[in-house]
Batch of 2 targets.
Target 1
Amino acid sequence: MWNREIAGLRLTFHLAGINNQNFLMRDDQTGTYWQQISGKAVSGPLRGSQLALVHSDELNFGTWRSEEPSGTVLQDNSKYRSQYEPKDWDVRMQRTQTVMDFHEHGLHARDLMLGIRAFGASRAYLYDDVHQEKLILDHVGGEPVLLVVGPDGQSVRAFRDRIPEAAGAPAFYRRPDGILMDAASGSEWNFRGCAVSGPNQGTCLAPVDMLKDYWFDWRNYNPKTTVYGRR
Amino acid sequence: MQRISRNVLLACLLFSFALLVYPVYVITPFRAQGARELAVALAVLQARPVADLSICMAALAALVYYWRSRPRRWRGALATLSALLVFAFAALARINIYELMFHSDDHPAFASASQTKLDKDEKVIAVNLGGAARAYPIRVISYHHVINDVLDKTAIVATY
């Protein structure tokens, strides 16, 4: 999700090619080509420019709707609806060949990862590990972060593990209903990272941008990435 | 003059074909691309409209001169065919084949969460800007790949 405004222009993008299984897009205003995965302009008048990332979460629709009952949803375009992926698209994609692979950390090309590039570092978490542990307290580039699975058992969010006016990184634990508890204050925190009870009520943790991606792609764009739980 | 015209036509044919085919050859799904060849392919794409225009004009001029040299009929026909092919390659080069495969949605429509019938475990990309919340079902944006949108007066592009 990128901000379309850059260099005083509001750009309109179109699909313009496939680049190692990510895509390239081209803006109508300057004809510059941009990489979808990085938001970087790779060719054309704005070459070298960087689009600003807009924070987004990948969630189950039910979870999102319960959080945002007044939100709006992109509708199918009826002309092309028949060409949309079937519901098991992610299962089918697992079987699709890749054009590259990185045999590191015992990972396979299409292993699903959750990647964080922040605080000067890149770190990836095997989705299955996160799914299993439900809550991971970790560090990225020296900064404490936490990854938490929502009450739906599938959606995942990442936050900075810091509470204003609290020293150090609070130690959280996750209840079976998905509520986070911080041991120090006993506050309850919802899946949006906001305290809903206790001394920290009203405080929200800062979200951290995270990308759900296949290992080969994450590693291709993050050559120095570390992997949680792997050497 | 006849020979020069013929050689110019042949060169135009070869160049217009190369300009059409090379970027498609490089920028293809399921093919690993090196950074340099991608840069070259993109440079070709950017220079192509002007290059094609010049090539078409050169091909037309060459054809006119060739016919003026009174060639044999079949040679003249072949030259005309070559020029037509040059124009055809230039026209084909204007087509964005990626958007032929994955049509854009230039006027995306939105409905309220309560009016939207999706399974609760359908995956969406969720954004919240200035309190305005929007969800993009992955099954929709994974087809269109690019959705240009405005949310809370911020122009954003959802990509997948």
Target 2
Amino acid sequence: MSTPADTLLVVPEPVSPDLARTLDLGGFAWKAGAADEPHDADSSFAGAIVDASVHPDAAWSFLRAVRRGDDVPIPVLLLIGGGQLDQLEHRDELFDDFCLTPFHPAELEARLRHLLASEIEVHRADLVEYGELTLNLETYQAHIGGRPLDMTYMEYELLKFLAQNPGKVFTREILLSRVWGYEYYGGARTVDVHVRRLRAKLGEEHAGLIQTVRSVGYRFGQSRWDP
Amino acid sequence: MLEPHRDYVLRSVEERGVRLIRLWFTDVLGNLKSLAISPAELDNALSDGMTFDGSSIDGFSRVQEADVLAIPDPDTFELLPWGDPKAPEARVFCDIHNLDGSPFAGDPRQVLQRHVQAAHDAGFTFYVAPDVEFFYFEPPQPGMPPVPIDNGGFFDLTTNDVTGDLRKQTIRTLETMGIPVEYSFHEDAPGQQEIDLRHTDALTMADSVMTFRVAVREVAARNGVHATFMPKPLEGVQGSGMHVHLSLFRGDENAFFDEEDAYRLSPVAKSFMAGLLRHAAEITAVTNQTVNSYKRLVPGFEAPVHLSWARNNRSGLIRVPIAKRGNPLATRVEYRSPDPACNPYLAFSLLLAAGMRGVVEGYELPDEADANLFEIDDTVLEKLGVGQLPQSLADALAVMERSTLVQEALGEHIFEWFLRNKRIEWRSYKTHVSAFEYGRYLMAL
């Protein structure tokens, strides 16, 4: 499933006309989903709005399933009725913010923007993403097009450094000093050897992510000056 | 040991659900040994090493001091691309230490580390790129000669290209394990293959050669084929060598390159080559360590016999390949006698030690031998001062025993054990009566 990273998941179906209109007017991309469906790809959404006012039990069990997943949890805004506030007790881990429904459109929009903004920062600290490449800095794992990449520690460190600085050209000397540290004595050829290995591991399709800049060094991804 | 390297290994094992970690190390003869541990043991192994009984390993401890420690080198941690993907396994190379933490004298990997460090102290990084040859055979039947899986020749694209597929699978496996391949092709003899690896520092390359041999055999076995690195498995066709391309770098400069020189070779390159030539006979027992190795080193099969060098003459021991587009970084020397059944740690150690002896003592390089030496009479060559490689394992051992260079380079423990072990191999070969003798003598005498 290819969901653009800025799309919100709205649960359950059908989405109330008020909510749909608020999201559309606020310029949010969104997609409706059923509460009882498995959402394996949930983490590819930017966030979720879960309405617990109609079928609270289904909503809570959906949220538990989302938070049990292995991936970094997506931010969740909960909609509940005024008479349901007691249900929030001991369920703090299942949502990030809530809004009483019927809601005021401006309030919902403000809460949503605040939630997504703060989550994006937290998100960015642990994940480096470029196109189909994802590096999780906390777990040291990397994926390309959904496939895990098996690397040695130094290969991982080199890829991480490059992916954190896309579009910039680095000389071998700079890469050597930033990634290996000055005490390493292998010489700049070490960089070439590791780049060659990384390209092989990225696979033919993605090998071009690391580009050789003739008589200078290497660049990750597209240059800002390229058409 | 650096914390993040360790952390990386521990987290990867956890995240990827690795079930078994294979601790790899190498015995004196170059056989790969493996100690499997569970993920629960890994943290402990990374900090304190794993104790095991070294007396069960060829060339390791004597019985009274049996226990040694295997300490993983976290930088070599890799997932193994074969086996059950649902229960992944990983490998990590280990250094062997005594229980008091000192390096264990019988560990070939640390012998190479010592030489690499010495070269570094002299300002050099040692790069190695081997061209590895091997054969694919039908699964061997006891007592029967091996049957090649095809009848292809040099660079042949055979029609029912089983070998091509095998080679492709092997290369994919090598690449996923971080072992870049430069070329691969069908060699001259039936069933014979060559895979050329891209240069890397000597220690990484020795680890890669060990991994390479496992990967080639694994991929072949999964396809019902037997791969062998035996130096001369078939009579009458060429054997399998492991030519090694060598260069020294000083930082980012190729210390072997000199633009002013007619051969584009620097004084360092020339004295390094002179060191290799002068000590070649002494190190041959290690670069060619089996009885069978010497059946490859004969005239007429592209294997070197003479202690000579040339630019484009493949009969000599050292070849200086013409660098593509005169690229200074590609200037190197190709040492052609080793075979793929050697212990790469010890072989690279001795090549570096012999070459560096030439550099340190400023050896003079003899003239290039550009004629085909196979066609010249031995007595003429002797007059020209061109010697030969040892003719048998026994000859090679006799020369090695008198070599202070080899003794110093390997250390007393390995030097002594190797000579003793290989003498036993020679003695047991000597008692063997061969088909050659029956054919020649049984009726006639």
